[in-house]
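> Could you send the Globin-like protein (inferred by orthology to a C. elegans protein) prediction when you get a chance?

Sure thing. Input:
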Amino acid sequence: MGKALLAALCIVVAGASALSPADVKKNAVASLATVPLGKTPEKVQNGKDFYKYFFTKHPEHRKYFKGAESFTADDVQKSDRFEKLGTGLLLSVHVLANTYDNEDVFRAFVRDTIDRHVSRGLDPALWKAFWGIYTAFLESRGTALSADQKAAWEQIGTMFNDEAQQQLAKHADVKKNAVASLATVPLGKTPEKVQNGKDFYKYFFTKHPEHRKYFKGAESFTADDVQKSDRFEKLGTGLLLSVHILANTYDNEDVFRAFVRDTIDRHVSRGLDPALWKAFWGIYTAFLESRGTALSADQKAAWEQIGTMFNDEAQQQLAKHAAMLWLVAVCFAIASVSAMSPADVKKHTVESMKAVPVGRDKAQNGIDFYKFFFTHHKDLRKFFKGAENFGADDVQKSKRFEKQGTALLLAVHVLANVYDNQAVFHGFVRELMNRHEKRGVDPKLWKIFFDDVWVPFLESKGAKLSGDAKAAWKELNKNFNSEAQHQLEKLGLPHA
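Output:
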């Protein structure tokens, strides 16, 4: 009897030790009352104040901020850079607090955060340690956190760190698998290693003779001609070096992308079809397998991710050279509707998003959006360089659109889930505009998404949208577009 009672008490205590997701959200959001988001000077100051606190209490971490390694609180106060960084960090904390009761959205937001920081060389332990720093910062504002509020932030930090470490491991595995797959084509000065570069062009000209046209004077070359050519010995060594560099720098995104830009700068005058910058990676993995070693699924996935990031940066650099920075964004249609309360807008939009959940195993939902989009809105494919003629089947096979679909889906989920907190909603809209600042998006494109694309897409996925649900999306869009256009104006960009 005593053992049974003890066991029951242990269960009760264990159950009471963890807050429910709803209670975590409630307590965390309440604790952020001293650091609200907004555009007024005093609210913008909240983000700066964190970095003033951080650099004062934890100067050892200033090393991660290039050019600000010796900054004091006064330097932070005068810095436009830390105004922007502070606002971005504060927004992220508010989003995480407000989405904790929707774990799929919370974890997707964590993955996106890690993807945007993976190249910055942060100690992985900081992703957990940060939350202790942040709660201490909140208390430095003059209000002691309750035990429940501290417990809420501890749970947020634990789940954040769990997802962050998984995503960091995923990035590390790309480099590891790609480098391992290059064991059959090492670099070096010996004849057999120099031959590796030539062998690629022998394979390339044999399997893809249609691309010989890009090699002036070698348009009719065979594998034997390549073997005898000093030119292709040099070209082969250069190409092999580039592939090794890209594999070895994937975990340092700034270096990786800079190398891509340099590669494009050196090829821009050669008239290559832009689609080849993505297609190349399928050719290269086939070449590696032609060497007699079958690539594992993880190795193939690694090269697919490398090719996706390479192509992303390559197309941006090509567009820069052509003075045509075209990229379609998530566009929102304005409509006149009777205003709903923010709580009702959230309720109806979140409910309708059950047809397209986010998650590690739910990437197909994002792909399905672009399959729908490219099928029903072919006129807008022109904004996707290299995919202007894509059909639904092409989208299905594309890692590029898996990544873009996941990001778009996450953004819509976040907007729906934080709509009842207007400061966070508006902050996230401004952040989206900041991310698109250099992409040359026509501001009118932000107005057409929901009526023409998003609501029909949801219905194509089986969502039965009521009149209230459709009205909720219109209300959300009206609010989104208003804030978006204001931010575009602030950034000095065209606005509608």
